[in-house]
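R.M. (postdoc): so does anyone remember the format we settled on? I'll just put the structure tokens first.
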């Protein structure tokens, strides 16, 4: 008499065949949607092999295994799927993605027991203006590259500064908004410094140079001013190589300072976005200038006319995204969206990004260096430590500080590389606000200032004499 057939064998067969067909369907979807083409060759082969192998294995199990074997395999696959879905649901409940960068910072602040102001920049600006303070939101040099901003600017004008003589609400990474008052050219300087023409050091750069999200007296530039009182800060958030070159030509060349500090971080060496801008790309021509030093009234009017509205639109867009994230918090469970993200599967499957062409970066630095040398000045590149390189180690290899520094030194450029300074600390993450991918803390700025000062004394001894009082930062 034959062995009794399991009452679950039929269901198990159907389940296994369904899983087989579904896996083939997923493979076809990957191929037809172009997802495979977007993957690296290794990732594409792995995905095809995994899906094809799974489909064939479950098809074989459905057709060839004994009834008990079919049931056992179906139960094991079901348990595996249930475990994945359970893990995804737990992530959605316990550790969902924050709906915005500010919410992520708020979560970090709550974990550290630090109060955090979650109001938008627009709300802070409105509150200050209601108190009679001439306040505007901090802007980025990326703004004029956005079509919605460009269309509101005068034809051909690419502003490189804030509005003048205003209280700028810059940013909030540590829990409270940081503000500063702009000078008569729209930069973070004492009033009258640039207008006096007596500038010993000009610092060009992005947010690190501006003093983004750190109290004014604690920033790198504020500390360097203890040594070099006549140091002019031309830093602004969102700067890249070409906007830094533009700032050099428009504002630094007319002053001809004895020392120019080109304060960059590795991401600025990737010029692809700025090269696409019709104005910024023209600065690779040494003869091109917008003559912004003489057009400060026009720049001032343009920035005052757009800053509040553009910031309000940006804040409103973030608010809509936050509401959508809250409404759709449990969307994506069936596709295991958060689990895949936590396992970094999207990054593992994507093609590695194309290496940036560093020649425009090198050309820009050469242009600025030659111009500085033409008036007898000294030009020094300072490489800042990015969290992505120092802590999370996810910076593209062509942008690593050692590579960039070596390229510059091979061209005869003086380089101060601060990245090893941060890497030498036992807990380098502690040098960044909230221990996350933010800007350096006040302690980080202090360390940078002391290190750069020591290196500048070496440069100072070999180059032009600068006015400094000999104190420490």
């Amino acid at each position: 008499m034959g062995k009794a057939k399991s009452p679950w064998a039929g269901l198990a067969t159907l389940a296994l065949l369904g899983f087989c067909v579904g896996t083939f369907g997923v493979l076809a979807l990957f191929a037809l949607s172009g997802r495979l083409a977007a993957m690296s060759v290794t990732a594409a082969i792995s995905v095809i092999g995994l899906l094809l192998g799974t489909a064939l294995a479950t098809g074989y199990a459905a057709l060839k295994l004994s009834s008990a074997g079919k049931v056992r395999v179906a139960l094991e696959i079901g348990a595996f799927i249930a475990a994945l879905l359970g893990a995804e649901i737990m992530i959605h409940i316990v550790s969902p993605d924050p709906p915005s960068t500010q919410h992520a910072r708020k979560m970090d602040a709550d974990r550290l027991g630090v109060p955090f102001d979650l109001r938008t920049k627009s709300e802070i600006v409105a509150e200050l203006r209601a108190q009679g303070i001439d306040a505007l939101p901090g802007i980025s040099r990326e703004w004029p590259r956005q079509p919605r901003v460009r269309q509101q600017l005068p034809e051909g004008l690419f502003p490189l500064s804030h509005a003048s003589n205003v209280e700028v609400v810059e940013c909030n990474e540590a829990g409270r908004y940081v503000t500063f008052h702009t000078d008569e050219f729209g930069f973070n300087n004492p009033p009258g410094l640039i207008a006096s023409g007596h500038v010993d050091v000009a610092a060009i750069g992005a947010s690190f140079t501006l003093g983004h999200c750190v109290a004014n007296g604690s920033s790198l530039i504020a500390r360097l001013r203890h040594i070099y009182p006549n140091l002019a800060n031309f830093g602004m958030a969102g700067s890249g190589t070409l906007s830094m070159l533009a700032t050099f030509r428009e504002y630094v060349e007319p002053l001809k300072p004895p020392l120019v500090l080109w304060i960059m971080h590795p991401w600025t060496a990737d010029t692809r976005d700025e090269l696409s801008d019709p104005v910024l790309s023209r600065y690779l021509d040494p003869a091109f200038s917008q003559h912004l030093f003489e057009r400060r009234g026009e720049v001032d009017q343009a920035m005052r006319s757009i800053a509040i509205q553009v910031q309000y639109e940006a804040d409103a867009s973030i608010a809509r995204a936050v509401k959508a994230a809250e409404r759709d918090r449990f969307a994506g469970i069936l596709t295991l969206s958060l689990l895949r993200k936590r396992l970094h599967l999207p990054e593992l499957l994507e093609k590695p990004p194309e290496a940036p062409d560093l020649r425009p970066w090198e050309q820009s630095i050469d242009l600025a260096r030659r111009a500085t040398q033409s008036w007898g000045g000294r030009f020094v590149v300072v490489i800042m430590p990015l969290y992505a390189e120092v802590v999370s180690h996810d910076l593209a290899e062509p942008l690593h500080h050692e590579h960039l520094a070596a390229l510059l030194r091979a061209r005869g450029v003086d380089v101060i590389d601060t990245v090893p300074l941060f890497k030498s600390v036992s807990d380098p993450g502690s040098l960044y606000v909230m221990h996350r991918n933010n800007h350096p803390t006040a302690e980080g700025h202090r360390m940078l200032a002391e290190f750069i000062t020591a290196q500048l004394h070496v440069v100072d001894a070999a180059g032009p004499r600068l006015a400094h009082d000999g104190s420490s930062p």
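R.M.: ...and that's the designed sequence above, right after the tokens. Also worth knowing: The first strand starts at residue 135 and ends at 137. Residues 464-472 have pLDDT under 50 and may be disordered.
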